[in-house]
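Structure first, sequence second, as always.
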């Protein structure tokens, strides 16, 4: 009997039924609640201790973005790494295992549309897990906590992009391999490889640091700080599109393996060019209420007047905590505020333990249009004063817009009942009902 709906709508409905019939998705949904609950309860307890100790003038210490939203939503990073790949592999590779792919191929539809339907359903299934995060937000508001919508939205988008990357990688692995277990191992190998890149960046620096800036963990970290960077978003979208396209290319059983491999390599080459171009894109948005990723507005306006290129030479080893703080705080803000900033790192070793006695170790040398100055200060204020002093600019006095924080000393009342009792009960009950109806 011919379906009255179009082939794509029919396929989306079919994939949704497949997803809801998957025990892997119900396991993901059931485990997400307790994962979010553990993170939320620990975050609220820590926030309460800090608020009680700091009082009304806690400032950046009592920032809900860092104290509540980032640790709570970090549970979704774990779910995306260890649980979501199995759901994606089950949905993408299950049709080939059951023979349903043969029936799908009888409908006139491109493999890209088929892969798009599966990705759309997987995205919808991931969004359902977001209900646990909404429960945490509702509890926090019920406690009297403060919520700044833009920064919460940015954190959620970051985890959504991370999930999209996981789905695309798992889909490509499921399409290119003959068995789900092989696809799971391949996906895990990529995840471990990205962790190795982060580790190498922390130890050796150099090109590893550049590559590590675009790994999924770095993407999530930036969004959890309320920072949206154009280059990171473009690269994430390119990776997602490439992974799904590769999965679609391998969903053509009539095409020889050599032909599918050739098309995949060509697509990967195009994606590499796009990624390289995306790294040159500038632009960012600090969505945090506290402006934790930016200099004060008066200082940024003063930096806009600087037209000469700035060169910074940092004599610190990659593993030196001072370099990491300088790179992730002051220099990162400086690069976003000024259009022409180049940073060079100089060190003999990776740890710096045997360079402390060197005369120039720890120096930060600035060159702005031929004018030079040396400093050892790594704080935001110190770097800003050095650059503006080198440019001969006096920033305008800032208005009293200092972030005073939102202290709240409360306990996570009823949170354990919601996440450890109500959530699993509802999910398991709904899963049993749905699976019985589809038997």
């Amino acid at each position: 009997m011919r379906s009255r709906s179009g082939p794509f709508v029919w396929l989306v409905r079919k994939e949704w039924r497949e997803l809801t019939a998957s025990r892997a998705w119900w396991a993901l949904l059931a485990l997400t609640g307790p994962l979010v609950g553990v993170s939320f309860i620990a975050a609220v307890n820590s926030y309460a201790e800090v608020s009680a100790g700091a009082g009304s003038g806690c400032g950046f210490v009592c920032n809900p973005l860092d104290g509540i939203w980032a640790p709570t939503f970090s549970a979704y990073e774990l779910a995306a790494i260890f649980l979501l790949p199995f759901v994606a592999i089950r949905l993408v590779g299950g049709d080939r295992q059951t023979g349903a792919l043969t029936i799908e191929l009888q409908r006139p539809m491109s493999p890209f549309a088929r892969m798009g339907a599966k990705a759309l359903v997987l995205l919808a299934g991931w969004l359902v897990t977001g209900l646990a995060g909404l429960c945490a937000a509702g509890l926090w508001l019920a406690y009297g906590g403060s919520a700044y919508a833009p920064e919460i939205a940015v954190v959620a988008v970051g985890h959504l992009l991370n999930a999209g990357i996981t789905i695309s990688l798992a889909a490509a692995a499921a399409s290119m391999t003959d068995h789900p277990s092989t696809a799971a191992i391949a996906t895990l190998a990529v995840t471990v490889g990205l962790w190795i890149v982060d580790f190498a960046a922390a130890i050796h620096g150099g090109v590893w640091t550049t590559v590590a800036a675009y790994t999924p963990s770095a993407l999530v970290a930036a969004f959890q700080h309320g920072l949206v960077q154009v280059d990171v978003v473009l690269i994430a979208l390119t990776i997602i599109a490439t992974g799904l396209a590769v999965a679609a290319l391998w969903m053509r059983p009539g095409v020889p393996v050599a032909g599918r491999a050739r098309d995949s390599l060509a697509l990967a080459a195009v994606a590499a060019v796009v990624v390289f171009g995306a790294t040159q894109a500038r632009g960012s948005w600090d969505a945090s209420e506290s402006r934790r990723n930016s200099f004060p507005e008066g200082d940024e306006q003063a930096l806009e007047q600087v037209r000469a290129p700035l060169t910074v030479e940092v004599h610190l080893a990659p593993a030196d905590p001072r370099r990491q703080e300088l790179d992730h705080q002051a220099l990162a803000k400086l690069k976003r505020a000024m259009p022409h900033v180049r940073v060079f790192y100089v060190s003999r070793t990776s740890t710096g333990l045997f360079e402390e006695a060197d005369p120039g170790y720890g120096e930060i040398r600035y060159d702005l249009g031929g004018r030079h100055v040396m400093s050892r200060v790594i704080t935001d204020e110190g770097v800003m004063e050095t650059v503006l002093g080198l440019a001969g600019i006096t920033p305008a006095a800032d208005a009293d817009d200092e972030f005073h924080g939102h202290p709240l000393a409360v306990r996570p009342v009823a949170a354990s009942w919601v996440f450890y009792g109500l959530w699993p009960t509802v999910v398991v009950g709904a899963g049993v009902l749905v699976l019985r109806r589809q038997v």
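Margin note: The mean pLDDT is 87.
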